[in-house]
Design brief:
One of its GO terms (cellular component) is mitochondrial large ribosomal subunit. Belongs to the bacterial ribosomal protein bL28 family. By secondary structure, this protein is of the alpha+beta class. It has one domain. Helix content is about 45%, strand content about 10%. Strands 1-2 form a two-stranded antiparallel ribbon. Strands 3-4 form a two-stranded antiparallel ribbon. The longest helix is centred in the N-terminal third of the chain and has 21 residues. The radius of gyration is 32 Å and the shape is elongated. It starts with a helix and ends with a helix.
Length: about 280
């Protein structure tokens, strides 16, 4: 925990530049004042998302530290430079499996001038089913994403098992939040207790506390709004009228204890700015 706290100032400086460098589909960024409101588990996940290298999709990394140059026949170091991938806003509304838009140059003919070219992912609309949510969904996906879903035997395993950096989609994180909340609250299959127990036991390894699952998939503005609401609920603002009233009542109670020998109305007469009526003086 202390390691995370020490990294917070560095995090606020690094995250914007990391977003430009790694070019994720979305980013996490907040100010120093907002940092005090957000819980540590939310900030830790944001830090991991912005610092983790995604799985290679558009290139095959070479293994080892050295390789033999095929032309000059001497040893050279292995340098795996990831291909820069662009993720448009539409990628947050689907499951692209790490694929994105690649910008480069091509030659139409041999020895011709290079011209700009864009390589786009092949998208298709697929109907996917979630066992935890018991819901069919029409989602724009890529062929690679369908292969990854098949490898882990279902959409639920893919959403819950894959790291957020590799999901790289707001839709995926919203689905993960719904799934984790359904598991934490045991609200899945309300009309079928037998299937509820079966599905719950199948995915129980992914269960996290409900207090933490509620923050999964939230954007920074949504998380700040939630944090402010929780703070207002736990520390409600008391009107000054009530504060001053309590102070006056406390002072009056202390004064009454000091004036035990006098009448019960003596402390009221001392505080009254008006003169006593003549009838009271005669009596």
């Amino acid at each position: 925990m202390s390691m995370i706290n020490n990294a917070l100032p560095l995090r606020r400086l690094i995250i914007p530049s990391l977003h430009k460098l790694k070019n994720a589909a979305y980013t996490y960024n907040w100010t120093a004042d907002e940092d005090k409101l957000l819980p540590e588990h939310f900030k830790k996940r944001a830090w991991e998302f912005m610092t983790k290298d995604p799985e290679p999709v558009h290139y095959i990394p070479e293994q080892g530290r050295w390789k033999m140059d095929p032309r000059f026949k001497y040893r050279i170091p292995v340098q795996n430079v990831p291909i820069r991938v662009l993720f448009p806003r539409e990628s947050n509304n689907g499951l692209w499996g790490g694929e994105g838009v690649i910008k480069g140059f091509v030659k139409k003919e041999k020895d011709s001038v290079r011209v700009p070219h864009l390589w786009l992912p092949r998208l298709r609309r697929a109907i996917l089913y979630s066992e935890i949510l018991d819901r069919y969904m029409s989602i724009m996906v890529t062929g690679r994403c369908l292969d990854l879903i098949d490898e882990v035997y279902g959409l639920d395993n893919y959403i819950l098992k894959t790291h957020e950096r590799d999901l790289n989609s707001r839709l995926a994180m919203k689905l993960r939040r719904e799934m984790l909340l359904a598991l934490a609250r045991k609200s899945l299959y309300p009309n079928d207790p037998v299937k509820r127990v079966k599905i719950y036991n199948r995915y129980k390894e992914y269960i996290i506390p409900e207090e933490e699952a509620e923050w999964i998939g939230l954007t920074v503005p949504e998380a700040l709004k939630k944090a402010e609401e929780m703070q207002a609920k736990n520390n409600p603002i008391q009107p000054l009228k009530e504060v001053f009233t309590e102070e006056i009542v406390q002072k009056l109670q202390e004064q009454s204890l000091e004036d035990k020998g006098t009448s019960s109305s003596s402390w009221l007469k001392k505080l009254s700015p008006f003169k006593e009526p003549e009838e009271d003086k005669k009596n």
